[in-house]
Design a protein that fits this description.
Strand content: 15-25%
Distance between the termini: 15 Å
Helix content: 40-55%
Number of domains: 2
Number of helices: 12
CATH architecture of the largest domain: 2-Layer Sandwich
Shape: globular
Order of helices and strands: HEEEHHEHEHEEEHHHHEHEHH
CATH topology of the largest domain: Nucleotidyltransferase, domain 5
Largest sheet: 5 strands, mixed
Bound molecules: 5'-O-[(R)-(carboxyoxy)(hydroxy)phosphoryl]adenosine, zinc ion
Strand order of the largest sheet: 3-2-1-4-5
Oligomer: single chain
Structural class: alpha/beta
């Protein structure tokens, strides 16, 4: 495929993701016009390994990545009907995340790159989430990104590949973490987000008046820990909680976070419109929590009021996966980015420290 890919000026990128509890590998093809195509996508979630602990245990996660990554890569190659020699570059998440897991994926990518004599592209996991809507929906720069995952809750202006400005962040828990803690408190199991969403379906959102922290303040930051405490107090007061109590608490919690997230995004859209008066605003939602339908509908209403467009990638590409890493690798590769085998895995790696890549107005460097 590589010769063909190259004759059509396309690049085939292998992406590896191991920064949390998904072991994932994928192949993505990017053409010279910037369009991408998913060639294969293999994800193994470690739900069973972590379920009894109610959250991700870093050492267990790293060990499972070691056990599975080779097989996951082999499957991605097989399902994509590709040979290792077909690959143009190997991209791997190099942070931020659980450092043991990041090391497993990044080291494998380095070894493959060295053995196959192919370029290595080190990927920031948050950038991988941030660029996914360019693959799924062809979104152009600049756009506004609401990144809501297990480790992050951020509003970010995306100006280009590597070119980010963080407008707001959480001052305590991440939104996905708040979902997971609520689920744990109510004994709903792990991962918590989908369980809370499911339980909320039959609940009465008005029964509990949960707080909306920071909502009255003139800033784009989030805070979820006060809400988490309110949920805990409500559950403790009712203990033992019935199924109806659980449904009502989940519905109240979900209504509160939906309102917070929609209001903040609305403020950010005002700011975007003031900054780019001639550009129709696009709000992109990425990260695992983007799979939540209640939050998506609250955002849909907020975005409609601004005459803006909401883009939410399909759920399987919102939660962690190899496609997003391969795609971020493809975008960087096309702009000439290459990383050395000395690239150091990062436990912390804020998006706005990356810096723009290549000449994004021109053709970019040729692969
Ligand atoms: O992006 P992701 O897969 O991993 C991180 O990089 O963190 O996000 C995982 C987070 C978890 O906290 C999970 O509970 C949450 O996303 N999540 C959801 C839903 N599906 C996953 N939260 C709310 N509703 C959902 N349907
Ligand atoms: Zn993620």
């Amino acid at each position: 495929m590589s010769e063909q890919a190259q004759s059509r000026n396309e690049s085939l990128i292998l992406g590896l993701e191991t920064s949390c509890d998904e072991t994932a590998a994928a192949l993505v093809l990017r053409d010279s016009a910037g369009r991408g195509q998913i060639v294969s996508n293999v994800v193994r979630s470690q739900f069973d390994e972590h379920a009894e602990f109610g959250g991700v245990v870093p050492e267990i996660a790293a060990r499972a990545h070691v056990q599975w990554l080779d097989r996951i890569i082999a499957r991605a190659m097989r399902e994509g009907d590709a040979r290792l020699s077909d690959i143009d570059a190997i991209a791997a998440t190099a942070g931020p995340g659980l450092i043991g897991g990041v090391l497993v994926g990044l080291t494998s990518a380095k070894a493959m790159a060295a053995a196959l004599d192919k370029p290595l592209i080190a990927i920031n996991h948050l950038e991988a989430h941030a660029l996914t809507p360019r693959l799924t929906d062809g979104v152009d720069f600049p756009y506004l990104l609401l990144l809501v995952s297990g480790g992050h809750s951020q509003l970010v202006l995306v100006r280009g590949v590597g070119d980010y400005e963080r407008w707001g962040t959480t001052i305590d828990d991440a939104l996905g973490e708040a979902f997971d803690k609520t689920a744990k408190l109510l004994d709903l199991g792990y991962p918590g987000g989908p369980k809370v969403e499911e339980a909320a379906r039959t609940g009465d959102a008005k029964r509990f008046a949960f707080p909306r922290p920071l909502l009255k303040q003139d800033r784009l930051d989030f805070s979820f820990s006060g809400l988490k405490t309110a949920v805990r107090l409500a559950a403790e007061e009712l203990a033992p909680v019935s199924d109806t109590d659980i449904a009502d608490i989940c519905a109240g919690f979900q209504a509160a976070v939906s309102e917070i997230v929609a209001a903040r995004s609305s403020d950010a859209l005002d700011r975007f419109a003031a900054l780019y008066p001639g550009i129709a605003p696009v709000l992109v939602v990425a990260g695992g929590v983007a799979a939540n339908k209640a939050i998506a509908s609250a955002l849909e209403r907020a975005v409609a009021r601004h005459g803006a467009k909401l883009v939410v990638p399909p759920p399987a590409l919102c939660t962690d996966n190899g496609v997003m890493v391969a795609w971020a690798g493809a975008e960087r590769f096309a702009l000439g980015a290459r990383d050395g085998s000395d690239f150091v895995a990062q436990a912390r790696w804020p998006l706005d420290t990356l810096g723009p890549v290549g000449d994004q107005n021109g053709e970019g460097a040729k692969p």
